[in-house]
Design brief:
InterPro entries: HAD-like_hydrolase_sf (IPR050155), HAD-like_sf (IPR036412), HAD-SF_hydro_IA (IPR006439), HAD_2 (IPR041492), HAD_sf (IPR023214), PGP-like_dom2 (IPR023198), PhnX-like (IPR022468). The chain is α/β, with parallel strands linked by helices. The chain is built from ten helices and eight strands.
Length: 227
Protein backbone atom coordinates (compact mmCIF):
# COMPACT_ATOMS: atom_id res chain seq x y z
CA UNK A 1 0.00 0.00 0.00
CA UNK A 2 1.27 3.46 -0.95
CA UNK A 3 2.26 5.44 2.13
CA UNK A 4 0.13 8.54 2.62
CA UNK A 5 0.46 10.91 5.55
CA UNK A 6 -2.34 13.39 4.99
CA UNK A 7 -5.88 13.35 3.57
CA UNK A 8 -7.46 16.70 2.67
CA UNK A 9 -11.24 16.71 2.29
CA UNK A 10 -13.45 19.48 1.02
CA UNK A 11 -16.41 20.12 3.32
CA UNK A 12 -19.85 20.87 1.84
CA UNK A 13 -20.80 18.42 -0.88
CA UNK A 14 -17.91 16.10 -0.05
CA UNK A 15 -18.12 15.20 3.64
CA UNK A 16 -21.20 17.23 4.63
CA UNK A 17 -24.63 16.82 3.03
CA UNK A 18 -26.34 20.21 2.91
CA UNK A 19 -28.32 19.73 -0.32
CA UNK A 20 -26.25 22.30 -2.25
CA UNK A 21 -27.79 25.04 -0.09
CA UNK A 22 -24.64 27.14 -0.57
CA UNK A 23 -25.09 27.37 -4.32
CA UNK A 24 -28.85 27.67 -4.14
CA UNK A 25 -28.39 30.61 -1.77
CA UNK A 26 -25.71 32.12 -3.99
CA UNK A 27 -28.07 31.95 -6.96
CA UNK A 28 -30.88 33.47 -4.86
CA UNK A 29 -28.89 36.55 -3.88
CA UNK A 30 -27.64 37.07 -7.44
CA UNK A 31 -31.20 36.95 -8.78
CA UNK A 32 -32.43 39.28 -6.04
CA UNK A 33 -29.64 41.72 -6.95
CA UNK A 34 -30.91 41.74 -10.55
CA UNK A 35 -28.46 39.28 -12.11
CA UNK A 36 -30.61 36.41 -13.32
CA UNK A 37 -28.77 33.11 -13.48
CA UNK A 38 -29.57 29.44 -13.11
CA UNK A 39 -28.22 26.93 -10.62
CA UNK A 40 -26.21 25.05 -13.24
CA UNK A 41 -24.26 28.22 -14.13
CA UNK A 42 -23.56 28.81 -10.44
CA UNK A 43 -22.31 25.24 -10.02
CA UNK A 44 -20.11 25.32 -13.12
CA UNK A 45 -18.46 28.67 -12.39
CA UNK A 46 -18.67 28.86 -8.60
CA UNK A 47 -18.28 25.36 -7.17
CA UNK A 48 -15.43 24.94 -4.70
CA UNK A 49 -14.22 28.53 -4.88
CA UNK A 50 -13.92 31.12 -2.15
CA UNK A 51 -17.38 32.61 -2.30
CA UNK A 52 -16.53 36.23 -3.13
CA UNK A 53 -14.37 34.97 -5.99
CA UNK A 54 -17.18 32.65 -7.07
CA UNK A 55 -19.61 35.57 -7.29
CA UNK A 56 -17.12 37.69 -9.22
CA UNK A 57 -16.46 34.85 -11.67
CA UNK A 58 -20.18 34.27 -12.24
CA UNK A 59 -20.71 37.97 -12.91
CA UNK A 60 -17.77 37.95 -15.32
CA UNK A 61 -19.28 34.95 -17.11
CA UNK A 62 -22.45 37.01 -17.53
CA UNK A 63 -20.41 39.74 -19.20
CA UNK A 64 -20.23 42.10 -16.23
CA UNK A 65 -16.63 43.32 -16.05
CA UNK A 66 -15.04 45.46 -13.30
CA UNK A 67 -17.53 43.90 -10.92
CA UNK A 68 -15.64 44.02 -7.63
CA UNK A 69 -18.04 46.43 -5.89
CA UNK A 70 -21.10 44.53 -7.11
CA UNK A 71 -19.54 41.22 -6.08
CA UNK A 72 -18.72 42.51 -2.61
CA UNK A 73 -22.28 43.73 -2.08
CA UNK A 74 -23.73 40.43 -3.28
CA UNK A 75 -21.23 38.55 -1.12
CA UNK A 76 -22.38 40.37 2.02
CA UNK A 77 -25.98 39.50 1.20
CA UNK A 78 -24.91 35.92 0.60
CA UNK A 79 -23.25 35.62 4.02
CA UNK A 80 -26.40 36.83 5.76
CA UNK A 81 -28.70 34.58 3.73
CA UNK A 82 -26.50 31.52 4.19
CA UNK A 83 -26.40 32.00 7.96
CA UNK A 84 -30.20 32.04 8.01
CA UNK A 85 -30.42 29.04 5.69
CA UNK A 86 -28.05 26.95 7.80
CA UNK A 87 -29.79 27.94 11.03
CA UNK A 88 -33.07 26.55 9.75
CA UNK A 89 -31.95 23.26 8.22
CA UNK A 90 -30.74 19.87 9.32
CA UNK A 91 -27.37 18.82 7.98
CA UNK A 92 -25.60 15.50 8.24
CA UNK A 93 -22.37 13.77 7.22
CA UNK A 94 -22.46 11.93 3.93
CA UNK A 95 -22.66 8.17 4.30
CA UNK A 96 -19.12 6.90 4.67
CA UNK A 97 -17.52 10.17 5.79
CA UNK A 98 -17.08 9.34 9.47
CA UNK A 99 -15.88 5.80 8.76
CA UNK A 100 -13.43 7.14 6.16
CA UNK A 101 -11.97 9.53 8.72
CA UNK A 102 -11.61 6.70 11.25
CA UNK A 103 -9.97 4.36 8.74
CA UNK A 104 -7.47 6.96 7.51
CA UNK A 105 -6.56 7.94 11.07
CA UNK A 106 -6.09 4.24 11.94
CA UNK A 107 -3.60 4.08 9.06
CA UNK A 108 -1.61 6.92 10.63
CA UNK A 109 -2.88 9.72 8.38
CA UNK A 110 -3.89 13.18 9.45
CA UNK A 111 -7.37 14.19 8.31
CA UNK A 112 -7.82 17.81 7.23
CA UNK A 113 -10.95 19.67 6.18
CA UNK A 114 -10.48 22.58 3.80
CA UNK A 115 -13.11 24.87 2.36
CA UNK A 116 -13.95 27.95 0.33
CA UNK A 117 -15.89 29.23 3.34
CA UNK A 118 -14.58 31.80 5.78
CA UNK A 119 -13.68 30.39 9.21
CA UNK A 120 -16.81 31.67 10.96
CA UNK A 121 -19.12 29.94 8.48
CA UNK A 122 -17.08 26.73 8.47
CA UNK A 123 -16.92 26.57 12.25
CA UNK A 124 -20.67 27.11 12.55
CA UNK A 125 -21.29 24.24 10.16
CA UNK A 126 -18.98 21.92 12.09
CA UNK A 127 -20.67 22.85 15.37
CA UNK A 128 -24.01 21.73 13.96
CA UNK A 129 -22.46 18.33 13.26
CA UNK A 130 -20.65 18.24 16.62
CA UNK A 131 -17.39 17.62 14.75
CA UNK A 132 -14.39 18.79 16.75
CA UNK A 133 -10.87 19.54 15.61
CA UNK A 134 -8.48 17.15 17.31
CA UNK A 135 -11.16 14.52 17.87
CA UNK A 136 -13.14 13.88 14.68
CA UNK A 137 -10.58 15.44 12.35
CA UNK A 138 -7.13 16.93 12.82
CA UNK A 139 -7.24 20.39 11.25
CA UNK A 140 -9.56 22.90 9.58
CA UNK A 141 -8.11 25.19 6.89
CA UNK A 142 -10.38 27.87 5.42
CA UNK A 143 -10.19 30.31 2.53
CA UNK A 144 -9.49 33.11 4.99
CA UNK A 145 -6.34 31.41 6.26
CA UNK A 146 -4.36 31.84 3.03
CA UNK A 147 -3.56 34.56 0.50
CA UNK A 148 -4.57 32.57 -2.58
CA UNK A 149 -7.52 30.26 -2.80
CA UNK A 150 -8.40 27.36 -5.08
CA UNK A 151 -7.20 26.37 -7.58
CA UNK A 152 -3.99 27.58 -5.95
CA UNK A 153 -2.57 24.96 -3.56
CA UNK A 154 -2.02 27.27 -0.60
CA UNK A 155 -4.57 25.62 1.73
CA UNK A 156 -2.99 22.21 1.15
CA UNK A 157 0.51 23.60 1.63
CA UNK A 158 -0.58 25.21 4.92
CA UNK A 159 -1.92 21.86 6.14
CA UNK A 160 1.34 20.16 5.14
CA UNK A 161 3.31 22.80 7.00
CA UNK A 162 1.22 22.33 10.14
CA UNK A 163 2.09 18.62 10.23
CA UNK A 164 5.67 18.85 8.96
CA UNK A 165 4.93 17.06 5.68
CA UNK A 166 7.32 18.11 2.93
CA UNK A 167 6.43 15.72 0.12
CA UNK A 168 3.02 16.36 -1.50
CA UNK A 169 3.04 12.87 -2.98
CA UNK A 170 2.08 11.74 0.54
CA UNK A 171 -1.16 13.74 0.35
CA UNK A 172 -4.65 12.71 -0.82
CA UNK A 173 -7.14 15.35 -1.97
CA UNK A 174 -10.85 14.56 -2.12
CA UNK A 175 -13.52 16.98 -3.36
CA UNK A 176 -16.81 17.35 -5.21
CA UNK A 177 -15.74 19.96 -7.78
CA UNK A 178 -13.17 20.22 -10.56
CA UNK A 179 -11.49 23.09 -8.75
CA UNK A 180 -10.87 20.79 -5.76
CA UNK A 181 -9.07 18.42 -8.10
CA UNK A 182 -7.12 21.29 -9.68
CA UNK A 183 -6.06 22.38 -6.19
CA UNK A 184 -4.73 18.89 -5.51
CA UNK A 185 -2.97 18.68 -8.87
CA UNK A 186 -1.36 22.09 -8.36
CA UNK A 187 -0.10 20.98 -4.96
CA UNK A 188 1.41 17.83 -6.47
CA UNK A 189 -0.78 15.51 -4.41
CA UNK A 190 -0.10 11.81 -4.79
CA UNK A 191 -3.79 11.08 -5.28
CA UNK A 192 -6.74 13.24 -6.33
CA UNK A 193 -10.27 11.91 -6.03
CA UNK A 194 -13.55 13.42 -7.17
CA UNK A 195 -16.83 12.44 -5.51
CA UNK A 196 -20.22 12.93 -7.19
CA UNK A 197 -22.21 13.65 -4.02
CA UNK A 198 -22.08 17.42 -4.32
CA UNK A 199 -21.72 20.24 -6.80
CA UNK A 200 -20.59 18.52 -9.99
CA UNK A 201 -21.24 15.29 -11.85
CA UNK A 202 -18.68 12.79 -13.14
CA UNK A 203 -18.30 14.46 -16.54
CA UNK A 204 -17.54 17.82 -14.94
CA UNK A 205 -15.15 16.29 -12.41
CA UNK A 206 -13.22 14.45 -15.12
CA UNK A 207 -12.37 17.74 -16.86
CA UNK A 208 -9.74 18.15 -14.12
CA UNK A 209 -8.29 14.65 -14.66
CA UNK A 210 -8.65 13.19 -11.16
CA UNK A 211 -7.07 9.81 -10.47
CA UNK A 212 -10.47 8.44 -9.47
CA UNK A 213 -14.11 9.50 -9.45
CA UNK A 214 -16.28 7.82 -6.82
CA UNK A 215 -19.95 7.96 -5.93
CA UNK A 216 -19.49 7.64 -2.18
CA UNK A 217 -16.74 8.05 0.40
CA UNK A 218 -17.39 4.41 1.24
CA UNK A 219 -15.28 3.61 -1.84
CA UNK A 220 -12.25 5.47 -0.49
CA UNK A 221 -10.91 2.66 1.68
CA UNK A 222 -10.55 0.28 -1.25
CA UNK A 223 -8.63 2.87 -3.28
CA UNK A 224 -6.22 3.61 -0.44
CA UNK A 225 -5.63 -0.05 0.37
CA UNK A 226 -5.00 -0.81 -3.30
CA UNK A 227 -2.34 1.89 -3.30
Amino acid sequence: MQKYSLAVFDMAGTTIDEDNIVYKTLRKVLVEAGYDTDLQTVLVHGAGKEKYEAIADILTEKGIRDNSEIARSVFEDFRKELKLAYAGMEISPFDGAVSAFSFLKSEGMKVVLNTGYDRKTATGLLEKLNWREGRDFDLLVTAGDVDKNRPYPDMIFLAMQKFGIKDASEVLKIGDSAIDIEEGKNAGCGLTIGVTTGAQDETQLRTANPDFVIRSLKELREIVVAG
